[in-house]
Predict the structure.
Amino acid sequence: MDEPQWLKDAIERARDEGRILNETAPVALPAPSAELHKKKPAQRQVRVRASVREAEFQLQVIEYAQARGWRVAHFRAVRVQRRDGTTFWETPVAADGRGFPDLLMLRRGGAVVAELKVPPNTPTDEQEAWLAAFRLLGVPAVVWTPADWPAIEEVLR
């Protein structure tokens, strides 16, 4: 399913301004959380990395959103150990919860739902179904990668 037009426009503006060169270029990531939570930093510092793990990316988006007044919900996986000693990770959800998006963000009567991926990972069918359900209700539901950081900043400011 296509991304909302406002997100396409934000990404296109970022590309036009040279803030996104291509999907494989090094990505400018926000500084550590101490920098994000300063009230009025003189200049936001960024660090550049060629790749980032999904968990790191998720934490950066959460901290950025919270620093800008968004309430953020994320349901994290837990480690489960079977009686035979084997372990696995799962997100404890019930009913139709499988594939629920990574982040649900609310602020001033608005909402954004985001599934975060680091290439080459892509959303599962269950994740796409949840995003489509939110979009049908008029809730912006996006898939973001680290290369989308300028658009993420624009949406969450």
The helical segments are 5-16, 33-36, 54-67, 125-136, 149-156. The beta strands are 27-30, 46-49, 71-73, 78-81, 87-90, 103-107, 110-116, 141-144. The first strand starts at residue 27 and ends at 30.
